[in-house]
Amino acid sequence: MQNPDFIRLSFFLSVLVLCGLWEWLTPRKQLTQNKLFRWLNNLGLIAFNSLCLSLLMPFLAFEVAVRIGQSNIGLFNHIDMPFALEVFLCVILLDLAIYAQHVVFHRVPWLWRLHRMHHADQDIDVTTGARFHPIEIILSMWIKISLIAVLGISPLAVLIFEVVLNASAMFNHSNAKLPLAIDKQLRKWVVTPDMHRVHHSVIAKETHSNFGFCLSIWDRMFRTYIAQPAQGHDNVKIGLPLFRQPNEQRLDKMLTQPFRQQ
Protein backbone atom coordinates (compact mmCIF):
# COMPACT_ATOMS: atom_id res chain seq x y z
CA MET A 1 0.00 0.00 0.00
CA GLN A 2 1.21 3.51 -0.82
CA ASN A 3 2.51 5.55 2.12
CA PRO A 4 -0.62 6.13 4.31
CA ASP A 5 0.81 9.39 5.69
CA PHE A 6 1.10 10.76 2.15
CA ILE A 7 -2.47 9.67 1.33
CA ARG A 8 -3.90 11.25 4.49
CA LEU A 9 -1.98 14.50 3.99
CA SER A 10 -2.95 14.71 0.32
CA PHE A 11 -6.65 14.33 1.10
CA PHE A 12 -6.42 16.71 4.06
CA LEU A 13 -4.82 19.50 2.02
CA SER A 14 -7.14 18.94 -0.95
CA VAL A 15 -10.33 19.08 1.15
CA LEU A 16 -8.99 22.05 3.16
CA VAL A 17 -8.38 24.03 -0.03
CA LEU A 18 -11.68 23.03 -1.66
CA CYS A 19 -13.79 23.80 1.41
CA GLY A 20 -11.83 27.00 2.02
CA LEU A 21 -12.61 28.17 -1.51
CA TRP A 22 -16.26 27.08 -1.19
CA GLU A 23 -16.85 29.07 1.99
CA TRP A 24 -14.96 32.07 0.58
CA LEU A 25 -17.07 32.11 -2.61
CA THR A 26 -20.45 31.36 -0.97
CA PRO A 27 -20.28 32.09 2.79
CA ARG A 28 -23.24 30.89 4.86
CA LYS A 29 -22.80 33.19 7.87
CA GLN A 30 -20.99 36.47 8.48
CA LEU A 31 -17.83 35.92 10.51
CA THR A 32 -17.32 37.83 13.77
CA GLN A 33 -13.57 37.29 14.29
CA ASN A 34 -10.45 38.10 12.29
CA LYS A 35 -10.22 35.21 9.82
CA LEU A 36 -6.44 35.39 9.28
CA PHE A 37 -5.78 35.36 13.03
CA ARG A 38 -8.08 32.37 13.56
CA TRP A 39 -6.66 30.42 10.64
CA LEU A 40 -3.05 30.96 11.72
CA ASN A 41 -3.81 29.73 15.24
CA ASN A 42 -6.15 26.89 14.28
CA LEU A 43 -3.72 25.60 11.66
CA GLY A 44 -0.87 26.08 14.12
CA LEU A 45 -2.77 23.88 16.57
CA ILE A 46 -3.15 21.19 13.90
CA ALA A 47 0.61 21.22 13.30
CA PHE A 48 1.26 21.10 17.05
CA ASN A 49 -1.08 18.13 17.45
CA SER A 50 0.69 16.26 14.65
CA LEU A 51 4.01 16.85 16.41
CA CYS A 52 2.57 15.63 19.74
CA LEU A 53 1.30 12.42 18.13
CA SER A 54 4.64 11.71 16.49
CA LEU A 55 6.56 12.31 19.74
CA LEU A 56 4.20 10.82 22.33
CA MET A 57 2.54 7.88 20.59
CA PRO A 58 4.69 4.76 20.11
CA PHE A 59 2.44 3.72 17.20
CA LEU A 60 -0.65 5.04 15.44
CA ALA A 61 -3.87 3.40 14.30
CA PHE A 62 -2.70 2.25 10.88
CA GLU A 63 0.45 0.60 12.27
CA VAL A 64 -1.63 -1.17 14.93
CA ALA A 65 -4.01 -2.47 12.26
CA VAL A 66 -1.06 -3.90 10.31
CA ARG A 67 0.29 -5.70 13.40
CA ILE A 68 -3.16 -6.96 14.39
CA GLY A 69 -3.65 -8.41 10.92
CA GLN A 70 -0.27 -10.13 11.00
CA SER A 71 -1.07 -11.62 14.43
CA ASN A 72 -4.58 -12.70 13.40
CA ILE A 73 -6.10 -10.94 16.43
CA GLY A 74 -9.61 -9.50 16.69
CA LEU A 75 -13.17 -10.38 15.74
CA PHE A 76 -13.06 -9.80 11.98
CA ASN A 77 -9.90 -11.90 11.62
CA HIS A 78 -12.01 -14.90 12.70
CA ILE A 79 -15.12 -14.22 10.59
CA ASP A 80 -15.31 -15.44 7.00
CA MET A 81 -16.87 -12.75 4.83
CA PRO A 82 -16.03 -10.88 1.62
CA PHE A 83 -13.24 -8.39 2.25
CA ALA A 84 -15.18 -5.48 0.72
CA LEU A 85 -18.10 -6.13 3.09
CA GLU A 86 -15.71 -6.35 6.04
CA VAL A 87 -14.14 -3.00 5.17
CA PHE A 88 -17.58 -1.40 4.77
CA LEU A 89 -18.80 -2.72 8.14
CA CYS A 90 -15.61 -1.64 9.89
CA VAL A 91 -15.89 1.92 8.58
CA ILE A 92 -19.53 2.08 9.72
CA LEU A 93 -18.62 0.73 13.18
CA LEU A 94 -15.76 3.20 13.54
CA ASP A 95 -18.11 6.05 12.65
CA LEU A 96 -20.56 4.85 15.31
CA ALA A 97 -17.69 4.68 17.81
CA ILE A 98 -16.72 8.29 17.04
CA TYR A 99 -20.34 9.35 17.59
CA ALA A 100 -20.39 7.55 20.96
CA GLN A 101 -17.03 9.01 21.94
CA HIS A 102 -18.28 12.49 21.07
CA VAL A 103 -21.32 12.05 23.30
CA VAL A 104 -19.13 10.87 26.19
CA PHE A 105 -16.75 13.83 25.79
CA HIS A 106 -19.75 16.13 26.19
CA ARG A 107 -21.24 14.37 29.22
CA VAL A 108 -18.21 13.49 31.36
CA PRO A 109 -17.09 16.75 33.06
CA TRP A 110 -13.30 16.31 32.85
CA LEU A 111 -13.52 15.17 29.22
CA TRP A 112 -15.78 18.12 28.43
CA ARG A 113 -13.09 20.47 29.78
CA LEU A 114 -10.80 19.09 27.07
CA HIS A 115 -13.38 19.04 24.30
CA ARG A 116 -14.85 22.48 24.98
CA MET A 117 -11.73 24.06 23.43
CA HIS A 118 -13.16 22.89 20.11
CA HIS A 119 -16.39 24.73 20.93
CA ALA A 120 -14.65 27.90 22.13
CA ASP A 121 -14.08 28.96 18.52
CA GLN A 122 -16.39 31.95 18.09
CA ASP A 123 -16.73 31.35 14.36
CA ILE A 124 -17.12 28.02 12.63
CA ASP A 125 -15.33 27.28 9.37
CA VAL A 126 -13.23 24.59 7.73
CA THR A 127 -10.33 25.01 10.20
CA THR A 128 -12.63 24.38 13.19
CA GLY A 129 -13.00 20.81 11.93
CA ALA A 130 -9.50 19.92 13.14
CA ARG A 131 -9.32 22.23 16.17
CA PHE A 132 -8.98 19.82 19.10
CA HIS A 133 -6.85 19.85 22.22
CA PRO A 134 -3.75 17.60 21.95
CA ILE A 135 -4.75 15.60 25.04
CA GLU A 136 -8.12 14.87 23.42
CA ILE A 137 -6.34 13.86 20.20
CA ILE A 138 -4.13 11.41 22.10
CA LEU A 139 -7.06 9.96 24.08
CA SER A 140 -9.03 9.56 20.85
CA MET A 141 -6.11 7.73 19.25
CA TRP A 142 -5.95 5.24 22.15
CA ILE A 143 -9.71 4.66 21.93
CA LYS A 144 -9.40 4.01 18.19
CA ILE A 145 -6.41 1.69 18.71
CA SER A 146 -8.34 -0.31 21.33
CA LEU A 147 -11.29 -0.71 18.98
CA ILE A 148 -9.01 -1.80 16.13
CA ALA A 149 -7.46 -4.45 18.37
CA VAL A 150 -10.80 -5.82 19.62
CA LEU A 151 -12.47 -5.90 16.20
CA GLY A 152 -9.40 -6.80 14.14
CA ILE A 153 -9.96 -3.93 11.72
CA SER A 154 -7.89 -4.09 8.54
CA PRO A 155 -5.33 -1.38 7.63
CA LEU A 156 -7.35 -0.46 4.52
CA ALA A 157 -10.51 0.14 6.59
CA VAL A 158 -8.54 2.28 9.05
CA LEU A 159 -7.05 4.37 6.26
CA ILE A 160 -10.43 4.85 4.53
CA PHE A 161 -12.05 5.80 7.82
CA GLU A 162 -9.35 8.33 8.74
CA VAL A 163 -9.58 9.98 5.32
CA VAL A 164 -13.39 10.05 5.43
CA LEU A 165 -13.46 11.34 9.03
CA ASN A 166 -11.06 14.21 8.34
CA ALA A 167 -12.83 15.14 5.10
CA SER A 168 -16.26 14.98 6.78
CA ALA A 169 -15.13 17.13 9.70
CA MET A 170 -13.82 19.85 7.38
CA PHE A 171 -16.90 19.64 5.16
CA ASN A 172 -19.48 19.87 7.95
CA HIS A 173 -17.64 22.66 9.76
CA SER A 174 -17.40 24.76 6.60
CA ASN A 175 -18.99 28.19 6.66
CA ALA A 176 -20.37 27.50 3.20
CA LYS A 177 -23.82 27.85 1.72
CA LEU A 178 -25.42 24.60 0.61
CA PRO A 179 -28.74 25.01 -1.25
CA LEU A 180 -31.55 24.13 1.16
CA ALA A 181 -33.04 21.50 -1.15
CA ILE A 182 -29.67 19.72 -1.37
CA ASP A 183 -29.11 20.07 2.38
CA LYS A 184 -32.52 18.53 3.08
CA GLN A 185 -31.74 15.43 1.05
CA LEU A 186 -28.05 15.14 1.94
CA ARG A 187 -28.54 15.32 5.72
CA LYS A 188 -30.69 12.20 5.59
CA TRP A 189 -27.41 10.36 5.18
CA VAL A 190 -24.47 12.56 6.11
CA VAL A 191 -23.83 15.52 8.40
CA THR A 192 -24.10 18.80 6.51
CA PRO A 193 -22.69 22.22 7.49
CA ASP A 194 -26.15 23.49 8.47
CA MET A 195 -26.79 20.41 10.59
CA HIS A 196 -23.48 20.63 12.41
CA ARG A 197 -23.66 24.40 12.93
CA VAL A 198 -26.42 23.72 15.47
CA HIS A 199 -23.84 21.79 17.52
CA HIS A 200 -21.68 24.93 17.80
CA SER A 201 -24.48 27.17 19.07
CA VAL A 202 -23.86 28.91 22.40
CA ILE A 203 -27.27 27.61 23.59
CA ALA A 204 -26.48 24.57 25.77
CA LYS A 205 -29.31 22.39 24.47
CA GLU A 206 -28.03 22.87 20.93
CA THR A 207 -24.37 22.47 21.93
CA HIS A 208 -25.19 19.02 23.28
CA SER A 209 -26.89 17.76 20.13
CA ASN A 210 -25.97 16.66 16.58
CA PHE A 211 -22.88 14.67 17.60
CA GLY A 212 -22.33 12.88 14.29
CA PHE A 213 -19.22 13.54 12.22
CA CYS A 214 -19.93 11.65 9.01
CA LEU A 215 -23.21 9.70 9.06
CA SER A 216 -26.27 11.56 10.34
CA ILE A 217 -28.24 8.41 11.17
CA TRP A 218 -26.78 8.06 14.66
CA ASP A 219 -28.26 11.36 15.88
CA ARG A 220 -31.69 10.36 14.60
CA MET A 221 -31.40 6.83 15.98
CA PHE A 222 -30.32 7.94 19.45
CA ARG A 223 -32.53 11.06 19.56
CA THR A 224 -29.76 13.65 19.76
CA TYR A 225 -30.86 15.41 16.57
CA ILE A 226 -31.94 19.06 16.32
CA ALA A 227 -32.82 20.16 12.80
CA GLN A 228 -32.14 23.91 12.99
CA PRO A 229 -30.78 26.46 15.50
CA ALA A 230 -33.50 28.31 17.42
CA GLN A 231 -32.13 31.70 16.35
CA GLY A 232 -31.70 30.71 12.70
CA HIS A 233 -28.39 30.28 10.90
CA ASP A 234 -27.86 34.01 10.30
CA ASN A 235 -28.29 34.91 13.96
CA VAL A 236 -27.04 31.85 15.83
CA LYS A 237 -24.27 32.79 18.25
CA ILE A 238 -21.29 30.47 17.91
CA GLY A 239 -19.06 29.32 20.78
CA LEU A 240 -19.37 29.09 24.56
CA PRO A 241 -20.28 31.53 27.33
CA LEU A 242 -16.65 31.11 28.47
CA PHE A 243 -13.51 32.29 26.65
CA ARG A 244 -15.11 35.02 24.59
CA GLN A 245 -12.20 37.48 24.65
CA PRO A 246 -10.51 37.75 21.23
CA ASN A 247 -7.13 36.64 22.61
CA GLU A 248 -8.67 33.29 23.63
CA GLN A 249 -8.30 32.28 19.98
CA ARG A 250 -4.51 32.45 20.40
CA LEU A 251 -2.70 29.11 20.39
CA ASP A 252 -1.24 29.38 23.89
CA LYS A 253 -4.62 30.41 25.31
CA MET A 254 -6.39 27.52 23.57
CA LEU A 255 -3.96 25.00 25.06
CA THR A 256 -4.62 26.21 28.61
CA GLN A 257 -8.43 26.48 28.36
CA PRO A 258 -9.09 23.00 29.86
CA PHE A 259 -7.28 24.12 33.00
CA ARG A 260 -9.06 27.47 33.37
CA GLN A 261 -12.62 28.57 33.94
CA GLN A 262 -12.05 31.88 32.12
Automatic annotation (TrEMBL):
It is found in: Membrane. One of its GO terms (cellular component) is membrane. InterPro entries: Fatty_acid_hydroxylase (IPR006694), Sterol_Desaturase_Related (IPR050307). GO terms for molecular function: iron ion binding; oxidoreductase activity. GO terms for biological process: lipid biosynthetic process. Residues 88-224 form the Fatty acid hydroxylase domain. Coiled coil: none annotated. This is Sterol desaturase. It comes from Vibrio hepatarius.
